[in-house]
Amino acid sequence: MLLSRLLYGIKILETNIESFDAEINSVSADSRNVQLNDVFVSIAGNSYDGHKYIGEALTRRAAVIVTENKSYAGSFPYIRVRSTRAAYALMWNNLCDRPSDKMRYIAVTGTNGKSSTVTMTAALLRASGIKCEGIGTLNSALTTPDPPELYPRLKELADGGCEYVVMEASSHALHYRKLEPLSFTVGVFTNLTPEHLDFHKNMRSYAASKSRLFTRCDVALYNKDDKYADAVTGNSAKRLSYSFFDDSADYICKNIKTASEGCSFDFLTLGELFRIELPLAGRLSVYNAMAAASLAHYLGVPKETVKQVFADMPPVKGRLEAVGLCDKSYRVFIDYAHTPDALSKALTSLRELKPDRLVCVFGCGGDRDKSKRAPMGAIATALADLVIITSDNPRSEDAFCIIKDILEGVDRTKRYLVIPDRRGAIRYAIHSARKGDLIVFCGKGHEDYEITQCGKMPFDEKKIIQEADKERIGKEGNEYNSR
Question: Does residue 181 belong to any structural domain of this protein?
């Protein structure tokens, strides 16, 4: 691709390049991957500065260096821009023949509920005859993929005739301008609760990152029950709201009923009232369904389609997902809850199913926001009858140190155990389950791996649970069985 085409839409502040007719092969922000006739983009990260690797990129015969720092301009061919991160996304979009212009985009942002809302929305649009794909945590390495993954993927979808892309927009992606080339037909805001505060430092900064999405949307659809809704979506040109409690919202949820086999609610908006049956557990599932149903209504999906799709909705992987067991005397769910609010909502939702005993198994991730650990310990012991504290992707940290942080918030008058090995914690919880128990394993959800100081290793929690359940059936007198 000609350099001039690669730079489409990018404001150049300074350059020493006289002709932009050079043929460019690719774009990289990693100097180790640069090849002949590539563009190297100098991006400053949290723990590194790509400007320091310009020399290596030139040694590997980069054709052009893109920088945002004046002091790194030199005799080599360079272009200086205001934001190398924004330029990086724009160049990848251009390199992939501008898929930004060939499809319509919907983005979902918020702390919790993004994956479920994306999954539900994509299912509703497909059922109405729209060719649609979802992108997010469930099918990507990151919640919002980096430009070298995202834009080739969007090109593939556009080339295949896709009309709509529904995607998760993380606060990191918005802060780092990964979505710079994209405009959105609708932006959806689910909620905002403490998360990533190791990065954002405070809730005001976190909300500000989320709000960037709503400056590039035709319409903001937001959860009116969330106290940060106005701060995040207030600058949108047009806003629509959904609510459980506020009858002035554009879309209203009434008469919620929850049971172990699913939930149901009345969906009310101007000129429409119908009941939605959803074979998914928990009040949080209702919030996610409300967001998706409201969005579908705005886009013109018929109510009969909405009702049918929700009635047949399969579990969203790792989101209050029921695990099939051989022993039917107790129940097990897995959930991705890894924030205080998500843990609270998951446990509160499962309490509504009225188990004889609610057992919660959870841990906290390493190299992540430490401030949430003690609150999660407090929430778990307040809402569950038995808490088993274990590991959950400790990464470079010592799992025992993470558990120690969790224990700072634990109510010592409540029943809790510490079993650092997650596989051991799973086996204990399953083998010692009583009739009428409901056990929820929080934190991993859809993940099929565990990240420790030894690296990333396979760890399929659902499979381990089901194996422990079979052991329980086949070995009545096992070491834990308390029936």
Answer: yes
